[in-house]
Design brief:
496 residues; alpha+beta; Topoisomerase II, domain 5; Gyrase A, domain 2; 3 domains; four-stranded antiparallel β-sheet; 14 helices; 38% helix
Length: 496
């Protein structure tokens, strides 16, 4: 039996899902509301962040803080170094930078967003089937958890603090996460998975593992002249403005200071400082002590990885592999259920299509008498084995349904898919297309029936990996631009 090293953990919050993410989708409740709102429309158009916040607010039982929702939307879209490894939303406009840790983002009325291309590969439509959803005012709302193919909690990480508790789960490289999942899907055990180092997208510093739960991050420095030290990378989430403040503080508070001045050079979402030392004796010891003084070395610990498990219980996990293993076991069960739901959905759709084809043929052959009363007509339909089929969306998806009184006699209940057909759809051309659809649906059922859970999962991992590689290639070909070509974001701000 697979062993997941975790322990039950108690926190003071009565609704932990509001502050702690699930290991299944890596999201908290407010973030799911945002994704749920954007996943509903068939067409994904850009929308202003403040307008999206107003739509999301409908999902709250009490009047929420619109500015807090806007901030959550902005955080889901941020992709500068130290933010998301994979951003669910696309940032169109100034969504902040590593200079101020995203706090310099423009107001919601000035910026736009939509779902990122990779979001629907991670949250596949097939995975939406059978999701348990929250119910508000008698209507289905956002899922209790989404069902992604990879544990996004390990991809983007999470950090939060509460009363007598704190959690920190660092982000990891999606490629490492996918590689370990593949090992498990292909039959390897938890012990065969490889330990992973924390990883920040586009970060260029050095990381060293000090133990099972400790890692050291180091910025990049280089001596470019006798008394000039160049800093080209900071530890992750040491924001540029904070580092600059630290330099100013050192100069003003230390007598004599280890350096006399510094120069900051604008660079696209990157870092470049020249530190002018007060002495020419810049040996390794001096450089190392200066790096320590300026916090260019940062140690992180992963011994407080607290999150909700697949059942919604608060757990403290020992390692990132324990989170990955718990995700794997929960996901394995959901894939079995999803496959059953998908087969049922396709079979229901096939039944509707097949009944439509036979219904038209019965009409054309004169085997159905449409002039009879309702009960007689239903008897005829049952006699010809035409099955009452409800709309598929009624079972799986929260949609706006047409209101119909229970005593409405204008349609034959359960046979709307037949009686709402138009005369044009019964012509030879459309009927040939209908027969082709029936053939394709039968082939789809046969193909899905033969696919194992491992094959389905592997296929989804492949699609995610391909899209992720495209994103990395785009990063390489199109370095992120700063807010202003003149100052590189040092002084410019989008007016609010």
């Amino acid at each position: 039996m697979t062993n997941v090293e975790k322990e039950q953990f108690n926190i003071a919050e009565t609704q932990p899902w509001r502050v702690l993410p699930s290991i299944i989708d890596g999201l908290i409740s407010s973030q799911r509301k945002i994704l749920h709102t954007l996943l509903q429309p068939k067409t994904q158009k850009e929308i202003k962040v403040n307008e999206l916040a107003n739509k999301v607010a409908i999902l709250y039982t009490q009047d929420p803080d619109r500015l807090e929702i806007e901030q959550s939307i902005i955080q889901l879209a941020q992709n500068f170094v130290g933010a998301n490894n994979i951003n669910y939303l696309e940032p169109n406009g100034w969504f902040g930078s590593r200079r101020d840790g995203g706090k310099d983002a423009a107001e919601g009325r000035f910026i736009y967003t939509k779902l990122s291309n990779i979001t629907r590969t991670i949250l596949s439509e097939g995975g939406d089937m059978g999701l348990a959803r929250r119910v508000r005012k008698g209507k289905l709302g956002e899922p209790r958890t989404y069902n992604p193919a990879i544990p996004m909690i390990l991809v983007n990480g999470y950090e939060a603090r509460g009363q007598d508790w704190q959690t920190y789960i660092p982000p990891y490289n999606p490629k490492d996460v996918i590689a370990n999942l593949r090992r498990r899907v292909r039959g390897a055990s938890k012990s065969d998975m490889q330990p992973m180092q924390p990883w920040f997208r586009n970060w260029t510093g050095q990381v060293k593992t000090l133990g099972q739960t400790h890692h050291s991050f180091r910025g990049t420095t280089c001596k470019i002249s006798e008394n000039v030290l160049e800093v080209t990378e900071l530890p992750p989430r040491l924001w540029t403005q904070d580092f600059r403040s630290e330099l100013d503080k050192h100069i003003s508070e230390h007598s004599p200071p280890m350096f006399k001045s510094y120069t900051e050079h604008p660079i696209n979402q990157g870092v470049r400082f020249e530190i002018h030392l007060d002495t020419c004796t810049t040996d390794i010891v001096t450089q190392g002590s200066l790096e320590t003084t300026l916090q260019l070395h940062k140690n992180i610990s992963t011994d407080s990885m607290i999150a909700l498990d697949g059942l919604g219980n608060v757990q403290r996990y020992a390692t990132e592999l324990d989170i990955l293993e718990d995700f794997y076991l929960s996901k394995l069960k959901s894939y079995t259920w999803n496959k059953t739901c998908q087969l049922l959905a396709i079979k229901r759709e096939l039944t509707k299509l097949d009944d439509q084809s036979r219904f038209v043929k019965l009409l054309l052959q004169g085997d159905l008498d449409m002039s009879t009363d309702r009960s007689t007509l239903v008897t005829q339909l049952i006699k010809h084995n035409l099955t009452p089929v409800e709309n598929l969306d009624d079972m799986f998806v929260a949609t706006k349904k047409r209101k119909r009184d229970v005593h409405d006699k204008s349609t034959v209940s359960g046979y709307e898919h037949l009686f709402e057909m138009t005369v044009a759809s019964m012509l030879p051309g459309p009927m040939r297309e209908l027969d082709l659809l029936i053939t394709n649906k039968k082939a789809e059922i046969a193909e899905l029936d033969l696919r194992s859970i491992g094959d389905i999962w592997e296929g989804e991992l492949q699609v995610i990996e391909e899209e992720w590689n495209r994103q990395l290639e785009y990063d390489r070909m199109h370095p992120q631009s700063s807010s202003c070509e003149k100052c590189g974001g040092l002084e410019c701000r989008i007016a609010g």
